[in-house]
Amino acid sequence: MAASEIEILKNIRTSAVRSRDSTTNATNTIDYAHHEVHGGNAYASHYTEIDVDTGEVVRVRFETANTAKWPHILMSAITTLSSRAIFIEETTLQHVAANAITAYNRNRNSANTSGMTICHTPIDNSSSSSGETVEVILEQQTWGTAGKGTSPGFGGTVRGSSEWILKPNTAYLVEVVSLADNNIITVSLDWYEHTNK
C-alpha cells in the first residue's frame, strides 16, 4: 500500500471516530431541520400580548418571499386560558410596518436573513385590493374551558406531524381569539427556508 493510500485511510478512520458517541459508539447524526439551523437558514419569531379579554383577538401575519426558497414552518399559540386559533392562507389583512416582528436567525453566528415579513395587528385594507382573494382556513382549534387554565394550545412542535410548507409570495395569518378575560397569548413561529430540489 502506498503512503498516500495509508494517509487516506487514516483520515477516514479519524473522521469516523469523530462521528461516534464516546459512550455508546453510536453514529452521531442530526436531522435535516437541525442541519438548517447550523447552515444559518432557520429562523424564529414570537409575539405576546397580556391581559387579553373575552372576544379580543391577537393576529400575527406573515408573508413569504417570491423566491424558490420555501419556508417549512411550525407555528404555535400558547395561552393561559381558553382560546380559539385559526391558521389562514391568502389572508386579505395587510402588513403594518410599524408592527413588524423581528425574525431571528437561530444560528446566532450567521448573517443570513429571512425572506418573510411578519407583523402583529395587521389592518383590513380590502377596499383597495384588486380582484377577489379567497381566504383558506388550513387549521383551527379550540382548547380549555372558559376561565380555566389550558392547553396544549394550537399548532405543534413535532416537525413531522405539524410542519407546513408554505407557498411563495403568499400572506398567512394566525388569529387567536380569547374565550376568557385576563388571558396571555403567545404566537410563535419557527421555520427554515429551503430550495426544493
Description:
Helices cover 14% and strands 40% of the residues. The chain is built from three helices and 13 strands. The strands form three sheets. Strands 1, 3, 6, 10, 11 and 13 form a six-stranded antiparallel β-sheet that branches. Strands 7-2-12-4-9 form a five-stranded antiparallel β-sheet, with no helix packed on it. The radius of gyration is 22 Å and the shape is elongated.
Q: What CATH architecture of the largest domain would you give? A: Sandwich
Number of strands: 13
Radius of gyration: 22 Å
Continuous helix count: 3
Q: Main beta sheet: strand number and arrangement?
A: 6 strands, antiparallel
Global outline: elongated
What is the percent of helical residues? Answer: 10-25%
Brief write-up:
The chain is mainly beta.
Short key terms for the protein model shown above:
197 residues; mainly beta; Jelly Rolls; 2 domains; 3 helices; 13 strands
Q: What is the strand and helix layout of this fold?
A:
Blueprint: H1 3-18, H2 32-38, E1 42-52, E2 57-63, E3 69-79, E4 83-89, E5 93-94, E6 104-105, E7 117-120, E8 123-124, E9 136-143, E10 154-155, H3 159-162, E11 164-165, E12 171-178, E13 183-195
